[in-house]
């Protein structure tokens, strides 16, 4: 009897537990479904990830409704503008570059080939892993030193990394002096100054007055493995602008130092993908002890430089292989010489530790090679200007019929080329009259922008500017008289007008604004967004993500100029308080349609933790 009684109790217990489980399941389904998309929603429909230990305007128990957003502009017309708040990222994220984040690579267990530098290429976080917090400045952050003084010194607190000063102490890269980091102008190959090294290259090429710009014929330069960009810094006085390129590698803050100094620079690597620049963009490429294996994968990296060089362009190479007499360096030199010979490059000059090769002016040499010679010519259907996410190819990019007939790029010398109608303008069906009208339109617009900014800026307030949708580059061209430089950004899915921008003697890159830009936080003084928000709405991307990204790359006290439709302006206004931005001015577009101009300034703020650390 006892056994039967125990069994009955067990059955009743099991039945009771099942009933409770069913009831709880019903509650979960009912309330869970009715509250989905509610308090836990993050921006852009993503889960809220609170990463900061120190917050401004929020805490861990804040009602999640403040993070709800819509990328559809104009939906809330007539409603009150409701301020929103964002958490502040933890201080350890003060130098976050979302698409070049090594921690993300480890967390996502990406299978990358380290031997070809895939781990230094762009790998952007999926939506559920994006940061929705404000990147804090480091403890003790100060408004950056102004140009041209910044070329030679920056605040140590702004980039609190001194390992390069110790590691490169014998090469004069940089020196710590009290609260500042000083840049004597040295480099791994040019310990005694980039200016003397640049003059020696010009002398090797027999350019008049040892001036590398060669009476305006050399204007755009690509410096790969640039270090802290002292080579590019000292080119500026010769009216040469360099795209200083380096990866986020063991010298991880080198590009951050370059931009803090006010020198054009970009985070990138010669790896597996094409660099984000069109063909025939640079008159000169430069590599000084850049530690690149140019012979790997059938010379694919040299062939990428070949794609980027203009007809008759130069590659200045300073490295032990150019002069050392040990067996390994001699082997590399022989193989490299054979490779560039098959690419139809010739030695323009060779002296001491530097060799300068020159690319041919026409296709004639390519046509005269023996059949089957490697590297081959690229396929006729290969678009040499398609670069966004496009793999490199180990082939030679032949010249267009225009370049073949012109026996060169046909560009006017600088500064005339800035306003001369570029030869590749015809690729887009634009006439010279349309080009001139575009220049005049943007001249008036930029003049209007500066009038709106004038109460807030002095002559030296702005240095690093970005045009987020550059079209033909006329925004940058209108700023020639200002002591600024402009990173011209061309959307990856629109007309590839970046080649026209380079033909004008300006620089820039291709980008997709649904993703983070390849730069450090706090690197630009002004962002110009002409219909950028309207464009990403059409692509279904989050405008809130874009605002957070703009805040990341904008320096404290920097400015944003938005030119877009009224619903976009209304949308952005909702976020000013949350982003610690303030409105400076609003203006109509002066009979140019229904665009509105909205000027904003980012405030300088520190987290409570940063304030404690700086004290």
Low-confidence stretches: 1-7, 27-70
Radius of gyration: 28 Å
CA-based shape: globular
Distance between the termini: 79 Å
Write out the strand line-up for the largest beta sheet, numbering strands in chain order.
6-5-4-7-8-10-9
Mean pLDDT: 86
How many β-strands, per DSSP?
17
Helix run count: 19
Helix % is 25-40%
**Structural class by secondary-structure content:** alpha/beta
Largest sheet: 7 strands, mixed
What is the strand content?
Answer: 15-25%
Structure in a nutshell:
With 615 residues, the chain is α/β, with parallel strands linked by helices. It has helices spanning 2-35, 102-108, 163-167, 194-204, 230-235, 254-260, 296-308, 327-342, 364-367, 401-406, 416-419, 432-453, 474-477, 498-503, 532-538, 543-553, 566-573, 576-579, 608-614; strands at 153-155, 175-177, 180-182, 220-224, 241-246, 265-267, 282-288, 309-318, 346-351, 354-358, 464-467, 485-491, 508-511, 524-530, 554-564, 581-588, 596-602.
Describe this structure in words.
The structure is a single chain. With 615 residues, the protein is an alpha/beta fold. Helices cover 30% and strands 16% of the residues. It has helices at 2-35, 102-108, 163-167, 194-204, 230-235, 254-260, 296-308, 327-342, 364-367, 401-406, 416-419, 432-453, 474-477, 498-503, 532-538, 543-553, 566-573, 576-579, 608-614, and strands at residues 153-155, 175-177, 180-182, 220-224, 241-246, 265-267, 282-288, 309-318, 346-351, 354-358, 464-467, 485-491, 508-511, 524-530, 554-564, 581-588, 596-602. The strands form three sheets. A seven-stranded mixed beta sheet has the order 6-5-4-7-8-10-9. Strand 4, helix 5 and strand 5 form a beta-alpha-beta unit. The chain is globular. Mean pLDDT is 86; it is low at 1-7 and 27-70.
């Amino acid at each position: 009897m006892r056994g039967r009684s125990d069994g009955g109790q067990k059955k009743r217990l099991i039945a009771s537990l099942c009933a409770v489980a069913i009831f709880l399941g019903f509650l979960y389904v009912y309330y869970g479904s009715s509250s989905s998309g509610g308090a836990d929603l993050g921006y852009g429909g993503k889960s809220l990830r609170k990463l900061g230990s120190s917050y401004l305007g929020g805490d861990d128990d804040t009602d999640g409704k403040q993070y709800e957003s819509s990328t559809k502009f104009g939906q809330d017309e007539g409603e009150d503008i409701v301020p929103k708040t964002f958490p502040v990222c933890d201080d350890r994220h003060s130098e976050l570059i979302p698409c070049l984040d090594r921690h993300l690579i480890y967390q996502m267990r990406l299978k990358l080939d380290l031997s070809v530098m895939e781990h230094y290429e762009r790998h952007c976080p999926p939506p559920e892993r994006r940061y929705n917090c404000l990147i804090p400045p480091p403890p003790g952050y100060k408004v950056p030193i102004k140009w041209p003084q910044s070329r030679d010194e920056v605040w140590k607190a702004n980039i609190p990394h001194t390992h390069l000063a110790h590691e490169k102490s014998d090469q004069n890269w940089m020196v710590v002096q009290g609260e500042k980091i000083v840049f004597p102008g040295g480099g791994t190959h040019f310990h005694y100054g980039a200016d003397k090294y640049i003059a020696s290259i010009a002398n090797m090429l027999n350019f008049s007055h040892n001036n590398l710009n060669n009476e305006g014929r050399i204007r755009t330069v690509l410096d790969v493995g640039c270090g802290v960009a002292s080579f590019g810094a000292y080119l500026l006085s010769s009216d040469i602008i360099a795209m200083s390129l380096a990866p986020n590698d063991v010298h991880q803050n080198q590009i951050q130092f370059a931009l803090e100094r006010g020198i054009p620079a970009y985070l990138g690597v010669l790896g597996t993908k094409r660099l984000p620049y069109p063909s025939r963009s640079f008159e000169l490429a430069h590599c000084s002890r850049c530690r690149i294996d140019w012979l790997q994968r059938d010379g694919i990296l040299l062939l990428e430089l070949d794609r980027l060089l203009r007809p008759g362009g130069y590659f200045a190479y300073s490295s032990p292989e150019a002069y050392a007499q040990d067996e390994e360096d001699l082997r590399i030199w022989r193989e490299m010489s054979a490779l560039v010979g098959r690419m139809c490059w010739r030695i323009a000059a060779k002296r001491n530790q530097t060799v300068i090769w020159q690319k041919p002016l026409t296709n004639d040499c390519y046509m005269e090679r023996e059949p089957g010679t490697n590297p081959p010519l690229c396929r006729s259907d290969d678009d040499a200007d398609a670069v966004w996410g496009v793999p490199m190819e180990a082939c030679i990019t032949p010249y267009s019929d225009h370049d073949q007939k012109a026996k060169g790029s046909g560009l006017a010398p600088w500064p005339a080329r800035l306003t001369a109608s570029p030869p590749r303008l015809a690729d887009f069906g634009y006439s010279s009259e349309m080009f001139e009208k575009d220049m005049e339109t943007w001249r008036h617009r930029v003049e209007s922008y500066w009038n709106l900014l004038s109460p807030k800026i002095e002559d030296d307030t702005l240095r690093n500017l970005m045009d987020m949708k550059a079209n033909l580059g006329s925004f940058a061209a209108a700023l020639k008289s200002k002591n600024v430089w402009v990173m011209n950004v061309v959307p990856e899915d629109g007309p590839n007008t970046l080649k026209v921008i380079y033909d004008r003697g300006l620089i820039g890159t291709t980008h997709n604004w649904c993703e983070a830009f390849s730069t450090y936080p706090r690197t630009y003084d002004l962002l110009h967004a002409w219909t950028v928000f309207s464009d990403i709405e059409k692509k279904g991307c989050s405008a809130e993500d874009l605002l957070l990204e703009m805040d990341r790359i904008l320096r404290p006290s920097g400015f944003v100029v938005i030119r877009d439709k009224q619903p976009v302006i209304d949308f952005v206004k909702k976020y000013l308080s949350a982003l610690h931005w303030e409105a400076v001015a609003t203006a109509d577009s002066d009979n140019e349609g229904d665009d509105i101009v909205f000027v904003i300034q980012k405030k300088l703020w520190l987290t409570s933790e940063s304030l404690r650390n700086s004290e």
